[in-house]
Amino acid sequence: PDDDVAFVRAVGTHSRGIGKTTLERIAAYAHRTMVSSYAAAAKVANIESIAKATQGKVAAFVNIIEGLKKNMTGKAAPLMKRVFKETGLADTLRSGGEKEQAAYENVVELINSAAAYDKQAEEPSLIDYLQTIALYSDTDAYDPASGKVSLMTLHAAKGLEFDDVFMIGLEDGLLPHERSMGFGDDIEEERRLFFVGITRARKRLHISHARHRTVHGQFLRTVPSGFLFEIGYEVEESVGADMLDFADSDIHYDDEDSQSDRFGTNELVEHGKFGLGRVKEFLDLGEDSIVVVRFNSGLTKSLMIKYAKLTRPDQ
């Protein structure tokens, strides 16, 4: 219930008459009252900026979730059927077009798989079933004799070994994931995943990270993952042909909008796309200085200050 990102995803599984503006107003109320978005939704009657009709739809969604929370133990298949039906997703997909019909059939097949699991497991549960199918897809789908490059997640690589392993995207926000940053237990889980990755290599391990990434249309400077420095990584800047040639690129910036302000830890800032957030870290790199911001949506972003156009709401 305290996961704001999961709340937005759950609301958006299909049309409920709860739009982006309503979610933004719920998030704003949650920020003002220092509660989660779900807790704010439960108090939607107090949010006067949301119309009465829409308040009713939000309250109906909360009632569904509260009803499902009352009994989430027992066999997996009945629970999945209940969620599928009571959330309205089954009716939505059944009455949709060809794409929705295919999605409906996929969910039904998943429930059938859960029913088979229920018959075989000594103490069936939804959590155990989800872990079981995750483990199946991790190891059973891999064919070491295929002679092909295998692309997989760190979770999928557990229990496997390769002569050569390439780990890419070792940047703050990716590994560790942005949603885990600032939370001790979550960071430790990300560190364990990193360990899983580097120990998959029998002979050669190749690790890389990007200097810049385009995220949501923004060209951002990245920060190497802190895990790299824990294993003795040292930053090596090169000026060879591998560097981006900005003079000949299609990326253009307005220097008049660039910023060189310093931001203090825990300072309140606002971004045009991501909204309000608190500064977690400031990296002084001169004109390429980077600020790490944890936004109220739960996202943590590393932004190059001169392009981020951050503002201070209090000023």
Fold and architecture overview:
With 315 residues, the chain is α+β, with helices and mostly antiparallel strands. The chain has three domains: 4-119, PCRA, domain 4, CATH 1.10.486.10; 152-235, P-loop containing nucleotide triphosphate hydrolases (Rossmann fold); 254-315, Thrombin, subunit H. It is 39% helix and 14% strand. The protein is built from eleven helices and eight strands. It has helices at 4-11, 20-33, 37-42, 52-69, 76-86, 89-94, 98-120, 126-139, 184-198, 226-230, 305-308; strands spanning 162-167, 201-207, 212-215, 218-221, 268-271, 275-283, 290-295, 300-304. The strands form three sheets. A four-stranded antiparallel β-sheet has the order 5-6-7-8. A two-stranded parallel ribbon has the order 1-2. Helix 5 (76-86) packs antiparallel against helix 7. The longest helix is centred in the middle third of the chain and has 23 residues, at 98-120. It is flat, with a radius of gyration of 23 Å. The two termini are 33 Å apart. Residues 237-260 have low confidence and may be disordered.
